[in-house]
Amino acid sequence: MIITKIASGSRFLKSFISRPLDIRFENQEAEEKIILLLRQHPIVNVPWILLVIILIFAPGVLKIVLPADILPINFQIVTVIIWYLFVFAYAFEKFVLWYYNVYIVTDERVIDVDFPSLLYRDITEAMLDRIEEINNRKGGYLRSLFDFGDVLVQTAGAIPEIRFEDVPDPEKVTHIIYDLVQAEENEDKGIKQP
What is the pLDDT of residues 37-81, one digit of tens each? Predict the structure, then answer.
């Protein structure tokens, strides 16, 4: 379940995209419409970004602390190049994992796409008619200040819970999913929507 067509322009790095028309994903049904595309709130990236900034300046600090004539100049240059390659690889991996760990809410199902590492993908999905309960959790100073939290979707399927972690505006997400579940139940009962 990979996003096959990604958002363009100003929506490229957004973590809350409502009704994106220019985004598609693998296994999307022909008539299925994406209602929400969610990522973790950007504030969760601050710790690794700060670490990358510290790691960028580390060779300069070490050069001041340690005498420069301990190692030959060629070895120093190669060591610094390798260091920056590792820092770049770390930053790139963290960004890609944040960008592609998405939560998708469609008019038919909810989908959680997790990449615990670059080489492994875990996809969990539940049809709307299998959802039993939707809760959200937002606790702590940072979560309250930046309005993000977890949305917990309890299902009647094999996977008992789908968790959208650190998404922006969890109350709004909960209400949208609840409204979709209600609409699905009404559709199953044959009640027309206004």
Answer: 999 999 999 999 999 999 999 988 877 777 766 778 888 889 899
- On whether both 73 and 117 belong to a single domain, the answer is no
Enter the pTM of the model.
Answer: 0.84
**Domain region containing 177:** 3-40+101-188
User: What DSSP letter does each residue of 56-105 carry, written as one string?
Assistant: HHHHHHHHHHS-GGGS-HHHHHHHHHHHHHHHHHHHHHHHHHHHH-EEEE
From residue 49, how far is each of 42, 59, 168 by CA, in Å?
11, 17, 19
Cα separation of 161 and 124, whole Å? 9
Instruction: Spell out the alpha helix ranges (H) of the chain.
Output: 46-65, 73-100, 141-146, 170-189
Assess whether 144 and 167 both reside in one domain.
Answer: yes
Return the structure tokens found at 33: 């419409």
- As a whole number of angstroms, the distance between CA 165 and CA 162 comes to 10
Q: Indicate the average pLDDT of the chain.
A: 88
Nearest to 98 by CA among 168, 162, 152, 45: 45
* Residue with token string 């979560």: 143
Rounded distance between C-alpha atoms, residue 127 and residue 28, angstroms: 13
Q: Shortest CA distance to 33 belongs to which of 44, 41, 23, 43?
A: 23
